[in-house]
Amino acid sequence: MTLPILLKGMEVTAIEKSGFFENLSSDNDRVLVLVQLNGGNDGLNTLIPLDQFDKLMNVRTDIMIPESKLLKLDDLHALHPMMGGFRTLHDAGKLATIQSVAYPNQNRSHFRSTDIWTTASDAEDFISTGWIGRFFDTDHPTFPENYPNSEHPDPFAITLGFVVSDTCQGQSTNFSFALNDPNTLTQLDQTEEGDSQGNPCYRNELQFIQTIIRQSNAYSETVGAAYEKGNNLAVYPEDNDLARQLKIVARLVSGGLKTKIYVVSLGGFDTHANQTAFDDPTQGAHSNLLGFLSSAVQSFQEDLEKLGVEKKVVGMTFSEFGRRIKANGSGGTDHGTAAPLFLFGSCINPGFFGENPQIGDQVGDDEGVAMQFDFRSVYASILMDWFGATEEQVRATLFRDFQKLPIIQGCDLNTSIQEEVLIEDASLLPNLVQNSAMLKFEGSAGQCLIQILNASGGLIRTLMSRSITSGTHTIQIETDYLEAGIYFLRLVNNNRHRTLRFVKTN
Question: Which pTM value belongs to this model?
Fold first, then answer.
Protein backbone atom coordinates (compact mmCIF):
# COMPACT_ATOMS: atom_id res chain seq x y z
CA MET A 1 0.00 0.00 0.00
CA THR A 2 1.27 3.48 -0.83
CA LEU A 3 0.33 6.54 1.14
CA PRO A 4 0.46 10.19 0.09
CA ILE A 5 2.90 12.29 2.09
CA LEU A 6 3.09 16.06 2.05
CA LEU A 7 6.38 17.89 1.90
CA LYS A 8 5.17 21.11 3.46
CA GLY A 9 1.94 20.50 1.58
CA MET A 10 3.44 19.14 -1.66
CA GLU A 11 2.00 15.70 -2.29
CA VAL A 12 4.45 12.89 -2.97
CA THR A 13 4.19 9.13 -2.97
CA ALA A 14 6.23 7.32 -0.36
CA ILE A 15 6.87 3.61 -0.08
CA GLU A 16 5.19 2.09 2.96
CA LYS A 17 8.40 0.41 4.13
CA SER A 18 11.57 2.03 2.92
CA GLY A 19 13.70 -0.21 0.79
CA PHE A 20 16.58 2.24 0.54
CA PHE A 21 19.14 0.33 2.52
CA GLU A 22 17.97 -2.96 1.06
CA ASN A 23 18.10 -1.54 -2.44
CA LEU A 24 21.63 -0.24 -1.99
CA SER A 25 22.82 -3.52 -0.52
CA SER A 26 24.63 -6.16 -2.53
CA ASP A 27 21.42 -8.21 -2.70
CA ASN A 28 19.70 -5.69 -4.97
CA ASP A 29 20.63 -5.05 -8.56
CA ARG A 30 19.33 -1.55 -9.41
CA VAL A 31 21.88 0.70 -11.06
CA LEU A 32 21.99 4.43 -11.82
CA VAL A 33 24.26 5.66 -14.61
CA LEU A 34 25.07 9.38 -14.50
CA VAL A 35 26.15 10.86 -17.84
CA GLN A 36 27.93 14.16 -17.19
CA LEU A 37 28.08 16.59 -20.13
CA ASN A 38 30.99 18.84 -19.20
CA GLY A 39 31.02 22.44 -20.35
CA GLY A 40 27.35 23.48 -20.32
CA ASN A 41 25.16 21.90 -23.00
CA ASP A 42 23.14 24.12 -25.33
CA GLY A 43 19.65 22.77 -24.70
CA LEU A 44 18.06 24.95 -27.39
CA ASN A 45 20.25 23.24 -29.99
CA THR A 46 19.55 19.80 -28.50
CA LEU A 47 15.78 19.77 -28.02
CA ILE A 48 14.30 22.44 -30.27
CA PRO A 49 10.92 23.99 -29.26
CA LEU A 50 9.04 24.06 -32.56
CA ASP A 51 6.45 26.54 -31.30
CA GLN A 52 9.28 29.00 -30.60
CA PHE A 53 11.25 28.31 -33.77
CA ASP A 54 10.70 31.66 -35.53
CA LYS A 55 11.70 33.64 -32.43
CA LEU A 56 14.82 31.54 -32.01
CA MET A 57 15.71 32.07 -35.64
CA ASN A 58 15.66 35.81 -35.02
CA VAL A 59 18.29 35.63 -32.28
CA ARG A 60 20.25 32.60 -33.49
CA THR A 61 20.30 33.25 -37.21
CA ASP A 62 23.84 31.99 -37.86
CA ILE A 63 23.64 28.81 -35.80
CA MET A 64 19.96 27.83 -36.04
CA ILE A 65 19.31 24.54 -37.81
CA PRO A 66 16.65 24.74 -40.58
CA GLU A 67 13.36 23.31 -39.42
CA SER A 68 13.29 20.86 -42.33
CA LYS A 69 16.51 19.25 -41.04
CA LEU A 70 15.28 18.62 -37.48
CA LEU A 71 14.17 15.23 -36.15
CA LYS A 72 10.55 15.93 -35.32
CA LEU A 73 9.13 14.09 -32.31
CA ASP A 74 5.69 15.73 -32.31
CA ASP A 75 4.16 19.10 -33.14
CA LEU A 76 6.03 20.84 -30.31
CA HIS A 77 9.40 19.09 -30.03
CA ALA A 78 12.27 18.18 -32.31
CA LEU A 79 15.80 16.87 -31.78
CA HIS A 80 19.06 17.89 -33.39
CA PRO A 81 19.53 15.92 -36.64
CA MET A 82 22.50 14.04 -35.16
CA MET A 83 20.34 12.59 -32.36
CA GLY A 84 18.70 9.73 -34.23
CA GLY A 85 19.54 7.39 -31.37
CA PHE A 86 17.58 9.51 -28.92
CA ARG A 87 14.63 9.61 -31.32
CA THR A 88 14.70 5.81 -31.48
CA LEU A 89 14.62 5.66 -27.69
CA HIS A 90 11.82 8.25 -27.59
CA ASP A 91 9.73 6.28 -30.09
CA ALA A 92 10.30 3.10 -28.07
CA GLY A 93 9.09 4.75 -24.86
CA LYS A 94 12.53 4.64 -23.24
CA LEU A 95 13.38 8.34 -23.07
CA ALA A 96 12.06 10.96 -20.66
CA THR A 97 12.79 14.65 -21.15
CA ILE A 98 12.59 17.07 -18.24
CA GLN A 99 12.44 20.63 -19.53
CA SER A 100 14.39 23.61 -18.19
CA VAL A 101 16.25 22.06 -15.24
CA ALA A 102 18.44 24.37 -13.12
CA TYR A 103 18.53 25.89 -9.62
CA PRO A 104 17.72 29.33 -8.18
CA ASN A 105 20.51 31.92 -8.41
CA GLN A 106 22.24 30.19 -11.28
CA ASN A 107 26.02 30.43 -11.09
CA ARG A 108 27.60 30.64 -14.54
CA SER A 109 31.06 29.50 -13.50
CA HIS A 110 31.89 26.00 -14.76
CA PHE A 111 33.64 25.02 -11.55
CA ARG A 112 31.15 26.42 -9.09
CA SER A 113 28.05 25.27 -10.97
CA THR A 114 29.48 21.77 -11.36
CA ASP A 115 30.16 21.81 -7.64
CA ILE A 116 26.52 22.75 -6.98
CA TRP A 117 25.23 19.92 -9.19
CA THR A 118 27.50 17.30 -7.62
CA THR A 119 26.91 18.36 -4.01
CA ALA A 120 23.23 19.34 -4.45
CA SER A 121 23.86 22.50 -2.45
CA ASP A 122 22.15 25.85 -2.74
CA ALA A 123 24.02 28.38 -4.86
CA GLU A 124 25.13 30.27 -1.73
CA ASP A 125 26.30 27.22 0.25
CA PHE A 126 29.60 25.36 0.04
CA ILE A 127 29.46 21.66 0.89
CA SER A 128 32.33 19.18 0.83
CA THR A 129 30.26 16.01 0.30
CA GLY A 130 28.41 14.77 -2.78
CA TRP A 131 24.72 13.92 -2.82
CA ILE A 132 25.36 10.22 -3.51
CA GLY A 133 28.22 10.17 -1.01
CA ARG A 134 25.92 11.44 1.76
CA PHE A 135 23.44 8.64 1.07
CA PHE A 136 26.13 6.01 1.28
CA ASP A 137 27.51 7.64 4.44
CA THR A 138 24.16 7.19 6.18
CA ASP A 139 24.35 3.40 6.05
CA HIS A 140 28.13 2.99 5.91
CA PRO A 141 29.59 5.53 8.36
CA THR A 142 32.86 3.61 8.92
CA PHE A 143 33.77 3.38 5.24
CA PRO A 144 36.50 2.67 4.08
CA GLU A 145 37.43 0.73 7.24
CA ASN A 146 36.57 -2.97 6.84
CA TYR A 147 35.41 -2.55 3.23
CA PRO A 148 35.06 -4.55 1.08
CA ASN A 149 33.49 -7.31 3.14
CA SER A 150 31.29 -10.35 2.60
CA GLU A 151 28.13 -8.26 2.48
CA HIS A 152 29.58 -5.52 0.28
CA PRO A 153 32.33 -7.09 -1.84
CA ASP A 154 32.04 -4.65 -4.76
CA PRO A 155 32.62 -0.90 -5.14
CA PHE A 156 29.61 1.21 -4.21
CA ALA A 157 30.27 3.47 -7.19
CA ILE A 158 32.57 3.52 -10.22
CA THR A 159 33.77 6.58 -12.11
CA LEU A 160 34.97 5.81 -15.62
CA GLY A 161 38.25 7.69 -15.91
CA PHE A 162 41.29 8.44 -13.78
CA VAL A 163 39.64 10.66 -11.13
CA VAL A 164 36.72 9.76 -8.86
CA SER A 165 33.53 11.82 -9.09
CA ASP A 166 32.74 14.47 -6.47
CA THR A 167 29.15 13.22 -6.64
CA CYS A 168 30.24 10.21 -4.56
CA GLN A 169 32.37 12.09 -2.00
CA GLY A 170 31.54 11.04 1.56
CA GLN A 171 32.51 12.55 4.88
CA SER A 172 35.86 10.78 5.15
CA THR A 173 36.57 9.49 1.64
CA ASN A 174 35.07 9.00 -1.81
CA PHE A 175 32.81 5.99 -2.32
CA SER A 176 33.76 5.82 -6.00
CA PHE A 177 36.39 3.57 -7.57
CA ALA A 178 38.16 5.17 -10.56
CA LEU A 179 38.36 2.84 -13.56
CA ASN A 180 39.78 3.71 -16.96
CA ASP A 181 40.56 0.36 -18.59
CA PRO A 182 39.56 -2.96 -16.95
CA ASN A 183 42.20 -4.72 -19.04
CA THR A 184 44.99 -2.88 -17.26
CA LEU A 185 43.95 -3.29 -13.64
CA THR A 186 47.04 -3.76 -11.50
CA GLN A 187 47.75 -4.26 -7.82
CA LEU A 188 49.14 -1.24 -5.97
CA ASP A 189 52.28 -1.64 -3.88
CA GLN A 190 51.68 -1.69 -0.16
CA THR A 191 53.29 1.10 1.84
CA GLU A 192 55.71 0.29 4.62
CA GLU A 193 54.18 -0.27 8.03
CA GLY A 194 54.76 2.65 10.35
CA ASP A 195 56.75 2.29 13.55
CA SER A 196 54.09 2.18 16.25
CA GLN A 197 56.75 3.08 18.84
CA GLY A 198 58.23 5.90 16.77
CA ASN A 199 56.97 9.30 15.67
CA PRO A 200 53.17 9.13 15.70
CA CYS A 201 52.60 12.36 13.77
CA TYR A 202 51.61 10.67 10.50
CA ARG A 203 50.48 7.32 11.87
CA ASN A 204 46.76 7.92 11.16
CA GLU A 205 47.46 9.25 7.70
CA LEU A 206 49.66 6.27 6.88
CA GLN A 207 47.05 3.83 8.14
CA PHE A 208 44.42 5.55 6.00
CA ILE A 209 46.62 5.26 2.91
CA GLN A 210 47.24 1.59 3.65
CA THR A 211 43.47 1.04 4.00
CA ILE A 212 42.79 2.70 0.65
CA ILE A 213 45.49 0.65 -1.09
CA ARG A 214 44.16 -2.61 0.34
CA GLN A 215 40.64 -1.63 -0.66
CA SER A 216 41.69 -0.63 -4.18
CA ASN A 217 43.50 -3.93 -4.67
CA ALA A 218 40.48 -5.90 -3.47
CA TYR A 219 38.12 -3.92 -5.70
CA SER A 220 40.46 -4.42 -8.65
CA GLU A 221 40.02 -8.16 -8.25
CA THR A 222 36.21 -8.10 -8.07
CA VAL A 223 35.90 -5.60 -10.93
CA GLY A 224 38.31 -7.61 -13.07
CA ALA A 225 36.42 -10.84 -12.36
CA ALA A 226 33.07 -9.25 -13.30
CA TYR A 227 34.56 -7.82 -16.47
CA GLU A 228 35.87 -11.24 -17.52
CA LYS A 229 32.53 -12.86 -16.72
CA GLY A 230 30.48 -10.16 -18.49
CA ASN A 231 29.80 -9.61 -22.16
CA ASN A 232 28.72 -7.08 -24.79
CA LEU A 233 26.22 -8.04 -27.50
CA ALA A 234 25.56 -4.68 -29.18
CA VAL A 235 27.80 -2.90 -31.68
CA TYR A 236 29.17 0.37 -30.27
CA PRO A 237 30.36 3.26 -32.45
CA GLU A 238 34.09 3.61 -33.00
CA ASP A 239 36.12 6.66 -31.94
CA ASN A 240 33.51 7.56 -29.31
CA ASP A 241 34.91 7.75 -25.77
CA LEU A 242 31.47 7.90 -24.16
CA ALA A 243 30.52 4.72 -26.01
CA ARG A 244 33.72 3.11 -24.72
CA GLN A 245 32.77 4.02 -21.14
CA LEU A 246 29.19 2.79 -21.45
CA LYS A 247 30.36 -0.43 -23.07
CA ILE A 248 32.44 -1.12 -19.94
CA VAL A 249 29.44 -0.36 -17.72
CA ALA A 250 27.21 -2.79 -19.65
CA ARG A 251 29.83 -5.53 -19.40
CA LEU A 252 30.30 -5.04 -15.66
CA VAL A 253 26.54 -5.07 -15.02
CA SER A 254 26.14 -8.23 -17.10
CA GLY A 255 29.09 -9.75 -15.23
CA GLY A 256 27.19 -9.47 -11.96
CA LEU A 257 29.02 -6.57 -10.32
CA LYS A 258 26.78 -5.11 -7.59
CA THR A 259 27.96 -1.52 -8.02
CA LYS A 260 25.02 0.90 -7.71
CA ILE A 261 26.34 4.10 -9.29
CA TYR A 262 28.36 4.59 -12.47
CA VAL A 263 29.57 8.03 -13.54
CA VAL A 264 30.59 8.53 -17.17
CA SER A 265 31.34 11.79 -18.93
CA LEU A 266 31.65 13.58 -22.25
CA GLY A 267 33.47 16.92 -22.47
CA GLY A 268 33.62 19.79 -24.94
CA PHE A 269 30.22 21.44 -24.47
CA ASP A 270 31.63 24.92 -23.73
CA THR A 271 30.77 26.13 -27.23
CA HIS A 272 31.53 29.86 -27.09
CA ALA A 273 32.83 29.88 -30.67
CA ASN A 274 32.29 27.83 -33.82
CA GLN A 275 29.45 25.86 -32.26
CA THR A 276 28.29 25.03 -35.78
CA ALA A 277 30.07 24.81 -39.10
CA PHE A 278 30.24 28.15 -40.92
CA ASP A 279 28.38 26.93 -44.01
CA ASP A 280 26.16 24.26 -42.42
CA PRO A 281 24.58 24.68 -38.93
CA THR A 282 23.73 20.96 -38.84
CA GLN A 283 27.47 20.22 -38.60
CA GLY A 284 30.23 21.39 -36.27
CA ALA A 285 31.48 20.92 -32.72
CA HIS A 286 28.11 20.68 -30.97
CA SER A 287 26.72 18.44 -33.68
CA ASN A 288 29.60 16.00 -33.18
CA LEU A 289 29.09 15.96 -29.41
CA LEU A 290 25.35 15.29 -29.69
CA GLY A 291 26.11 12.52 -32.17
CA PHE A 292 28.54 10.93 -29.68
CA LEU A 293 25.97 11.18 -26.88
CA SER A 294 23.01 9.88 -28.87
CA SER A 295 24.73 6.94 -30.55
CA ALA A 296 26.54 5.88 -27.37
CA VAL A 297 23.37 5.84 -25.26
CA GLN A 298 21.40 4.04 -27.98
CA SER A 299 24.04 1.29 -28.23
CA PHE A 300 24.20 1.03 -24.44
CA GLN A 301 20.45 0.59 -24.12
CA GLU A 302 20.44 -1.97 -26.93
CA ASP A 303 23.26 -3.84 -25.21
CA LEU A 304 21.42 -3.91 -21.89
CA GLU A 305 18.35 -5.35 -23.60
CA LYS A 306 20.27 -8.04 -25.47
CA LEU A 307 22.10 -8.97 -22.27
CA GLY A 308 18.80 -9.24 -20.40
CA VAL A 309 19.69 -6.63 -17.76
CA GLU A 310 17.78 -3.60 -19.05
CA LYS A 311 15.41 -3.60 -16.07
CA LYS A 312 18.35 -3.10 -13.73
CA VAL A 313 19.57 0.20 -15.17
CA VAL A 314 18.33 3.80 -15.37
CA GLY A 315 20.49 6.52 -16.94
CA MET A 316 20.44 10.29 -16.50
CA THR A 317 22.28 13.11 -18.28
CA PHE A 318 23.27 16.36 -16.59
CA SER A 319 25.33 19.45 -17.38
CA GLU A 320 26.34 22.38 -15.20
CA PHE A 321 24.13 24.86 -17.07
CA GLY A 322 22.52 25.59 -20.42
CA ARG A 323 23.50 28.34 -22.85
CA ARG A 324 22.01 31.79 -23.39
CA ILE A 325 19.14 32.23 -25.79
CA LYS A 326 20.96 34.68 -28.05
CA ALA A 327 23.92 33.52 -30.11
CA ASN A 328 27.08 35.53 -29.59
CA GLY A 329 29.22 37.18 -32.26
CA SER A 330 31.59 34.21 -32.54
CA GLY A 331 29.23 31.63 -33.94
CA GLY A 332 28.54 30.16 -30.52
CA THR A 333 26.63 30.60 -27.28
CA ASP A 334 27.64 31.81 -23.82
CA HIS A 335 26.96 30.45 -20.33
CA GLY A 336 23.25 30.43 -19.55
CA THR A 337 20.74 28.98 -17.12
CA ALA A 338 18.41 26.00 -17.57
CA ALA A 339 18.52 23.14 -20.09
CA PRO A 340 16.70 19.85 -20.66
CA LEU A 341 17.75 16.78 -18.69
CA PHE A 342 17.24 13.31 -20.19
CA LEU A 343 16.51 10.00 -18.49
CA PHE A 344 16.69 6.72 -20.38
CA GLY A 345 15.90 3.08 -19.73
CA SER A 346 13.14 0.53 -19.70
CA CYS A 347 11.86 1.62 -16.29
CA ILE A 348 11.42 5.37 -16.82
CA ASN A 349 8.12 7.17 -17.39
CA PRO A 350 8.60 8.33 -21.00
CA GLY A 351 7.59 11.60 -22.59
CA PHE A 352 8.00 15.28 -21.73
CA PHE A 353 7.87 16.92 -18.32
CA GLY A 354 7.28 20.66 -18.43
CA GLU A 355 6.59 22.96 -21.33
CA ASN A 356 8.78 24.42 -24.02
CA PRO A 357 10.88 27.45 -23.02
CA GLN A 358 9.11 30.70 -23.80
CA ILE A 359 11.12 33.02 -26.05
CA GLY A 360 10.13 36.70 -26.09
CA ASP A 361 9.90 39.04 -29.04
CA GLN A 362 12.81 40.89 -27.46
CA VAL A 363 15.56 38.79 -25.89
CA GLY A 364 18.16 40.25 -23.53
CA ASP A 365 21.85 39.64 -24.17
CA ASP A 366 22.23 37.82 -20.84
CA GLU A 367 18.89 36.02 -20.94
CA GLY A 368 18.94 32.29 -20.33
CA VAL A 369 16.19 29.70 -20.43
CA ALA A 370 14.03 30.12 -17.32
CA MET A 371 14.05 27.34 -14.74
CA GLN A 372 10.98 25.12 -14.48
CA PHE A 373 12.39 22.29 -12.35
CA ASP A 374 14.99 22.32 -9.58
CA PHE A 375 17.57 19.62 -10.34
CA ARG A 376 17.31 18.34 -6.77
CA SER A 377 13.71 17.34 -7.42
CA VAL A 378 15.05 15.00 -10.10
CA TYR A 379 17.62 13.58 -7.68
CA ALA A 380 15.01 13.12 -4.97
CA SER A 381 12.52 11.42 -7.30
CA ILE A 382 15.15 8.95 -8.51
CA LEU A 383 16.29 8.15 -4.98
CA MET A 384 12.73 7.58 -3.80
CA ASP A 385 11.26 5.69 -6.76
CA TRP A 386 14.35 3.86 -8.02
CA PHE A 387 16.26 3.18 -4.82
CA GLY A 388 13.34 3.28 -2.37
CA ALA A 389 14.53 6.07 -0.08
CA THR A 390 12.00 7.65 2.23
CA GLU A 391 11.01 11.29 2.15
CA GLU A 392 12.86 11.89 5.41
CA GLN A 393 16.09 10.34 4.14
CA VAL A 394 15.98 12.33 0.92
CA ARG A 395 15.20 15.60 2.65
CA ALA A 396 18.03 15.07 5.14
CA THR A 397 20.47 14.42 2.32
CA LEU A 398 19.37 17.22 0.01
CA PHE A 399 18.85 19.72 2.89
CA ARG A 400 15.54 20.93 1.48
CA ASP A 401 12.02 20.13 0.39
CA PHE A 402 11.45 19.11 -3.19
CA GLN A 403 8.81 18.63 -5.84
CA LYS A 404 8.13 14.95 -6.51
CA LEU A 405 8.29 14.07 -10.21
CA PRO A 406 6.76 10.86 -11.62
CA ILE A 407 9.80 9.94 -13.74
CA ILE A 408 10.09 6.23 -12.81
CA GLN A 409 7.52 3.59 -13.68
CA GLY A 410 7.25 -0.10 -14.52
CA CYS A 411 9.81 -2.84 -13.84
CA ASP A 412 7.73 -4.10 -10.91
CA LEU A 413 8.63 -1.12 -8.75
CA ASN A 414 6.51 -0.38 -5.70
CA THR A 415 5.68 3.16 -6.77
CA SER A 416 2.51 5.04 -7.57
CA ILE A 417 2.66 7.21 -10.66
CA GLN A 418 1.05 10.62 -10.63
CA GLU A 419 0.55 12.50 -13.86
CA GLU A 420 2.69 15.61 -14.04
CA VAL A 421 0.48 18.53 -15.05
CA LEU A 422 1.12 22.05 -16.22
CA ILE A 423 -0.97 24.81 -14.70
CA GLU A 424 -2.44 25.63 -18.08
CA ASP A 425 -4.98 28.16 -16.79
CA ALA A 426 -2.38 30.50 -15.25
CA SER A 427 -1.99 34.04 -16.55
CA LEU A 428 -0.05 37.16 -15.57
CA LEU A 429 -1.47 40.40 -16.95
CA PRO A 430 -0.35 42.74 -18.27
CA ASN A 431 2.77 41.24 -19.81
CA LEU A 432 4.40 44.66 -19.95
CA VAL A 433 4.39 45.56 -16.26
CA GLN A 434 4.95 48.96 -14.67
CA ASN A 435 4.12 48.81 -10.95
CA SER A 436 2.04 45.65 -10.58
CA ALA A 437 0.46 42.75 -12.42
CA MET A 438 -2.35 40.34 -11.67
CA LEU A 439 -1.64 36.60 -11.38
CA LYS A 440 -4.65 34.35 -11.87
CA PHE A 441 -4.60 30.55 -11.69
CA GLU A 442 -6.72 27.57 -10.77
CA GLY A 443 -5.14 26.09 -7.67
CA SER A 444 -5.45 22.75 -5.92
CA ALA A 445 -5.33 22.28 -2.16
CA GLY A 446 -1.75 22.05 -0.94
CA GLN A 447 1.54 23.88 -1.07
CA CYS A 448 1.97 26.85 -3.37
CA LEU A 449 5.34 28.42 -4.21
CA ILE A 450 5.58 31.70 -6.15
CA GLN A 451 8.98 33.17 -7.03
CA ILE A 452 10.36 35.93 -9.24
CA LEU A 453 13.62 35.23 -11.08
CA ASN A 454 15.62 37.49 -13.35
CA ALA A 455 16.77 36.72 -16.88
CA SER A 456 20.06 35.17 -15.74
CA GLY A 457 18.40 32.79 -13.27
CA GLY A 458 18.83 34.83 -10.10
CA LEU A 459 16.14 34.48 -7.44
CA ILE A 460 14.82 37.99 -6.79
CA ARG A 461 12.08 37.26 -4.30
CA THR A 462 9.88 34.45 -2.97
CA LEU A 463 6.37 35.90 -2.92
CA MET A 464 4.57 32.90 -1.43
CA SER A 465 5.41 29.57 0.16
CA ARG A 466 2.38 28.24 1.98
CA SER A 467 -0.68 26.05 1.64
CA ILE A 468 -3.67 27.20 -0.39
CA THR A 469 -7.19 25.91 -0.93
CA SER A 470 -8.68 24.59 -4.15
CA GLY A 471 -10.23 27.11 -6.50
CA THR A 472 -9.45 30.22 -8.48
CA HIS A 473 -6.75 32.42 -6.99
CA THR A 474 -6.09 36.02 -7.98
CA ILE A 475 -2.95 37.59 -6.54
CA GLN A 476 -1.57 41.06 -7.14
CA ILE A 477 2.15 40.93 -7.91
CA GLU A 478 3.94 44.13 -6.94
CA THR A 479 6.87 44.97 -9.23
CA ASP A 480 7.71 48.57 -8.33
CA TYR A 481 10.99 47.44 -6.70
CA LEU A 482 12.20 45.80 -9.92
CA GLU A 483 14.47 47.52 -12.39
CA ALA A 484 13.42 47.57 -16.04
CA GLY A 485 14.16 44.24 -17.71
CA ILE A 486 13.03 40.68 -18.35
CA TYR A 487 11.77 38.50 -15.47
CA PHE A 488 10.07 35.17 -14.86
CA LEU A 489 7.37 34.25 -12.39
CA ARG A 490 7.71 30.62 -11.26
CA LEU A 491 4.56 29.00 -9.89
CA VAL A 492 4.57 25.53 -8.26
CA ASN A 493 1.37 24.05 -6.85
CA ASN A 494 1.79 20.48 -5.57
CA ASN A 495 3.03 18.49 -8.58
CA ARG A 496 1.82 21.18 -11.02
CA HIS A 497 3.92 24.06 -12.22
CA ARG A 498 4.17 26.98 -14.66
CA THR A 499 6.79 29.61 -15.54
CA LEU A 500 5.50 32.92 -16.93
CA ARG A 501 7.71 35.51 -18.64
CA PHE A 502 7.10 39.23 -18.20
CA VAL A 503 8.84 42.53 -18.94
CA LYS A 504 9.20 45.30 -16.36
CA THR A 505 9.06 48.76 -17.89
CA ASN A 506 9.75 52.18 -16.40
Answer: 0.89
